[in-house]
């Protein structure tokens, strides 16, 4: 049986090591399972404490995806076997979202440089892994998206934090439409830091072993340095230098999100979701295929997801990343109990009829009152939040 994540420690010329984690489920586009998330979190924790590991690399097996999302099949089975409407009754969902969110938060707050190669499809759970990395790389194959509107969930894994920090109202547009971004738009949206050709990735890894990496506790190779020595800043700079040196000379042409940013900002302005939804819907027959596809995806998607994503963005705009993960955890448990998430997976992946029966069926029915239940803590009274310790000193 294949290991869900492959781990390698590649020795460098000066005695340090590069920790490489490879998501190893190419047949499912490296969909993030609970086993993968747990294994990756444990190894990242160990590498964080290992003074000989200078840099961590995240990549996906195969040439089609870094990670195209979470393990929806297992979540679907758990929803089938759990009490309907009981947001605390699905033990698998409780564990899956807690482990996944803790992993994502660990990457955001990691004490060492994390280099992530966002090749191919990077969606949903893949965005959660990539967006916290300190050095995020895209290439000509990259296609990034938060497509939860089509499965009845919402842009989670810290998506409420990420989308609210994108230029203007583009984050809201992406939440409501699930529109895909190319490498150029990944830069515009703040999802990428560096651009390489896909064929150059192996050569980049070879260059990494040649750098004079600094070690923890003031160590460079086998040489002790003064206590004031700062290995993190040196290693960040070394990694940045290597990546800059390998970027193609040609400039990326503006992607569709940037090209249409002014129009999108106007369409998504204000706090009335019904009006914003109507504005985007009017693009369904637009001459630009990217805008038209985005509008049609929204119209075919879950109205409940649209309301929940919108409300999370409005409520959490000024909250810390840890607070966002805590709020999303509550919302994800309710989403696992209230129908649309299960129905969306059924229509897309199980029966594959692509005819989901959403409930509520319209954006008007998915009202401000309807969405309030997604913010009610579902665990027994007096029990602390399972992610209470995130962000604690």
TrEMBL record:
GO biological process, one term: L-valine catabolic process
Reaction equation(s) it catalyzes: 3-hydroxy-2-methylpropanoyl-CoA + H2O = 3-hydroxy-2-methylpropanoate + CoA + H(+)
Lineage, top ranks: Bacteria, Pseudomonadati, Pseudomonadota, Betaproteobacteria, Burkholderiales
One cellular-component annotation, GO: cytosol
Gene3D superfamilies: 2-enoyl-CoA Hydratase, Chain A, domain 1 (3.90.226.10)
Record EC number: 3.1.2.4
GO MF annotation, one: 3-hydroxyisobutyryl-CoA hydrolase activity
Name of the protein this chain belongs to: 3-hydroxyisobutyryl-CoA hydrolase
Domain named Enoyl-CoA hydratase/isomerase: residues: 18-375
Source organism, top-level taxon: Bacteria
CDD domains named in the record: crotonase-like
Enzyme class: hydrolase
Keywords of this entry: Hydrolase
């Amino acid at each position: 049986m294949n290991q869900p994540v492959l781990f390698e420690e590649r020795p460098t010329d000066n005695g340090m090591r590069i920790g490489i984690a490879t998501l190893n489920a190419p047949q499912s586009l490296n969909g993030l399972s609970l086993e993968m998330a747990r294994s990756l979190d444990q190894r990242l924790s160990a590498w964080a404490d290992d003074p000989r590991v200078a840099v961590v690399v995240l990549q996906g097996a195969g040439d089609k995806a870094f990670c195209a999302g979470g393990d929806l099949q297992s979540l679907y089975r758990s929803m089938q076997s759990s009490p309907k409407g009981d947001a605390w009754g699905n033990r698998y969902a409780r564990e899956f979202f807690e482990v996944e969110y803790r992993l994502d938060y660990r990457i955001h707050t990691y004490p060492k440089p994390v280099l992530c190669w966002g090749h191919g499809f990077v969606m949903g759970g893949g965005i959660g892994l990539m967006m916290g990395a300190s050095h995020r790389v895209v290439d000509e194959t990259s296609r990034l998206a938060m497509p939860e509107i089509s499965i009845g969930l919402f842009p989670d894994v810290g998506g409420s934090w990420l989308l609210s920090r994108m230029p203007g109202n583009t984050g809201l547009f992406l939440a409501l439409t699930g529109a895909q971004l190319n490498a150029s738009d990944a830069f515009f949206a703040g999802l990428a830091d560096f651009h390489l050709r896909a064929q150059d990735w192996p050569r980049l890894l070879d260059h990494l072993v040649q750098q004079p990496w600094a070690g923890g506790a003031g160590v460079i190779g086998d040489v002790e340095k003064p206590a004031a020595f700062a290995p993190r800043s040196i290693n960040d700079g070394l990694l940045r230098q290597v990546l800059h040196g390998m970027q193609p000379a040609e400039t990326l042409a503006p992607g569709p999100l940037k090209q249409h940013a002014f129009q999108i900002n106007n369409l998504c302005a204000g706090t009335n979701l019904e009006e914003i939804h109507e504005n985007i819907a009017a693009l369904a027959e637009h001459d630009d295929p990217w805008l038209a596809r985005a509008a049609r995806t929204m119209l075919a998607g879950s109205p409940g997801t649209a309301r929940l994503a919108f409300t999370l963005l409005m409520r959490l705009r000024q909250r810390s990343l840890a607070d966002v993960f805590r709020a999303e955890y509550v919302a994800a448990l309710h989403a696992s109990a209230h129908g649309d998430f299960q129905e969306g997976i059924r229509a897309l992946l199980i029966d594959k009829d692509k005819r989901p029966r959403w409930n509520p069926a319209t954006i008007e029915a998915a009202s401000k009152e309807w969405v309030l239940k997604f913010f009610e803590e579902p665990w027994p009274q007096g029990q602390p939040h399972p992610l209470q310790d995130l962000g604690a000193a």
